[in-house]
Design a protein that fits this description.
Distance between the termini: 24 Å
Order of helices and strands: HHHHHHHHHH
Radius of gyration: 18 Å
Shape: globular
Structural class: mainly alpha
Largest sheet: none
CATH class: Mainly Alpha
CATH superfamily: RNA polymerase sigma factor, region 2, helix turn helix motif
Number of strands: 0
Number of domains: 1
CATH architecture: Orthogonal Bundle
Number of helices: 10
Strand content: under 5%
Length: 212
């Protein structure tokens, strides 16, 4: 996926029923969990595990860490299910846990190693079989991994998890205007990072960033 395609997707707000409206089946499972029925959490995992995994993968760019993070997200959600009050949809609540889990993971890795950027770049090159020969996609992933946290979270949720501006704002606890601004800056930074790159050439690691 190139930057131009990301711009098209960023500006696309499909007319659809929001996935962040409470699902009746989610509500029933949550209430059962809160009454102590542990097995009721299984269908929640089955319904949401793909989206949670995709979000985690876009943060860490490798399947092993993404799988571990997704499991951690659901473990945290299960332990905290008693505090879920339904003020937002379960999806919103779950995505917030996922974003925070990924941010904490990245922060811990950064604290543990001064070579985090190289680690992330190396991880970005470990892609699935369908994408491993797509150099341009690798370069985009590396550029995304270097974005400031707010811009990266906004871009991942909007583009890769296909949320609307309103849904991204709910997950991140911000306003639609802030989401649009961060998305604008993220795409601008990606264009700068990708400018002049060619197959076999990595984006410059010290590209100047704008915005949050």
């Amino acid at each position: 996926m190139n930057v131009d395609r990301l711009v098209i997707l960023a500006n696309d707000e499909p007319a659809r029923v929001s996935r962040f409206r409470p699902r009746e089946e989610d509500r029933a499972a949550i209430e059962a969990c809160q009454r102590g029925a542990r097995e009721a959490f299984d269908p929640l995992v089955e319904r949401h595990q793909r989206d949670v995994y995709r979000l985690c993968y876009r943060y860490v760019n490798n399947h092993h860490d993404a799988s571990d993070l997704a499991q951690d997200v659901f473990l945290k959600a299960y332990r905290a299910i008693g505090r879920f009050r339904g003020d937002s949809a379960f999806s919103t609540w779950l995505y917030r846990i996922a974003v925070n889990t990924c941010l904490n993971f990245r922060a811990a890795r950064k604290a543990a190693s001064e070579e985090l950027k190289d680690d992330v770049a190396d991880a970005g090159r470990r892609v699935d079989d369908r994408m491993e020969d797509d150099e341009r996609s690798r370069q985009v992933r590396e550029a995304v991994s270097r974005l400031p946290e707010k811009q990266r979270a906004t871009l991942i949720l909007k583009i890769y998890n296909d949320l609307t501006h309103e849904e991204v704002a709910q997950v991140l606890g911000s306003t639609v205007g802030t989401v649009k601004a961060n998305l604008f800056h993220a795409l601008g930074n990606l264009r700068k990072a990708m400018a002049g790159t060619a197959p076999g050439k990595r984006p410059a690691p010290d590209a100047k960033k704008t915005g949050d």
